Amino acid sequence: MQKYSLAIHGGAGAILRSEMTPERELGYRSALLAALGAGEAVLRNGGGALSAVEAAVVALEDNELFNAGRGSVFTHDGTNEMDASIMCGEKLQAGAVAMVQGVRNPILLARRVMEASEHVFLCGAGALRFAQEHGLEEAPPEYFFSPFRFRQLEEARARGLVQLDHSRKYGTVGAVACDAHGNLAAATSTGGLTNKKYGRIGDSPIIGSGTYANNRTCAVSCTGHGEYFIQGVIAYDLSCLMEYKGMSLQEAADFVIHHKQQALGGDGGLIAVDARGNLALPFNSAGMYRAWVREGEEAGVGIYE
Predict the structure, then answer these.
(1) In terms of Cα–Cα distance, which of 91, 101, 71, 95 is closest to 211?
(2) CB 213 within 8 A of CB 89
(3) Domain containing residue 250: CATH number
(4) Could you give the CA distance from residue 284 to residue 46 in angstroms, rounded to a whole number?
(5) Which of 16, 96, 248, 270 is the 20 to 30 Å CA partner of 240?
């Protein structure tokens, strides 16, 4: 048995310090610590890494401060299309969904795909039908409606832009964990881009790009400009650098974010944990909404450097 570790993120990029009021910052920090607490409660009670990352992401999806679940941004057509994925490092099992509408917690659906189907990745109407057949909770459009998010859509439409969340913030949420048995898991969920068109899908539901977990190396959840994380296969590349080049978790995480990702032209960050419980939370953007805890230690929370 070993000590558990858990890290979560609520998106990379950050509201400028000049625009961040004390009340607003307190709200974000409190929400991050609450989600961290939900995941840690699972680990503290002897639960596994998979259930811990699921619990943490559910808490983030339920909070409209974050662009996932309830707080998802609007597409060009005025709908909410959500993506999510989850992966178990012990057996390399994974589940993912994309372009999902009306499901309260897409991360729960991703886990159900992993455990109750012969598939890894479902999307659109088929994913919704699977959710209904398996009794996943749905929510009406008004549950996902936020005046703030709708104003973002109107502004993006007026400017003819597909834009990232708000105030230079990438709105993905995610969690990674190492449990007392050394098992790893990762989970990621997002509402995508404001004013997105044509069924655009980012890196969050793509295993190896936005999410990856392998007990031999690490568990990773990414946040940032999704197209570049897809092109760089960033989550899997971090694992490969550890497995094939013998890099430490921190060395590999720093390389993919501060060198490979920037060379591609993208920005963002990631959270990662290895089977010894080491954590890495690098980002090359203005900030990353994040929180972390190791068994027996005080939890940490941050937005800026």
Answers:
(1) 95
(2) yes
(3) 3.60.20.30
(4) 35
(5) 96
β-sheet with 211-213: strand ranges across? 211-213, 218-224, 268-274, 279-280
Cβ proximity of 81 and 124 under 8 Å? no
**At residue 105, what is the residue type?**
N
172 is catalytic: yes
| 121-123 and 93-100 beta bridge pairing | parallel
In a domain, 82, yes or no: yes
| Residues 6+ away with beta carbon under 8 Å from 91 | none
Residue 302 in domain:
no
* Residue range(s) defining the domain that contains residue 175: 5-193+201-297
Reported as a single tens digit per residue, the pLDDT across 147-178 is: 878 787 778 788 776 655 444 455 799 999 99
94/76 Cα distance (integer angstroms)? 30
Q: Does any domain span residue 100?
A: yes
Among the listed residues 75, 172, 188, 190, the single catalytic one is 172
Q: What is the DSSP letter of 34?
A: H
List Cβ neighbours of 149 (8 Å cut-off, separation of 6 or more). Answer: 71, 72, 73, 74, 194
Per-position b or e across 68-101, b if 16+ CB within 10 A of its CB: bbbbbbbbbeeebbbbbbbbbbbeebbbbbbbbb
Q: What is the mean pLDDT of residues 209-218?
A: 98
User: What is the end-to-end Cα distance of the chain in Å, rounded?
Assistant: 33
Distance between CA atoms of residues 171 and 290, nearest Å = 12
Mean pLDDT value across residues 10-25: 83
The whole-angstrom distance between residue 120's C-alpha and the CA centroid of its chain comes to 17
- Tell me the CA distances in angstroms from 6 to 97, 231, 278, 292, one per residue in order: 23, 27, 10, 6
pLDDT tens sequence across 192-210? 988 899 999 999 999 999 9
Using an 8 Å Cβ cutoff, are 72 and 176 in contact?
no
Mutual angle of helices 49-61 and 106-116, in 10-degree steps: 150
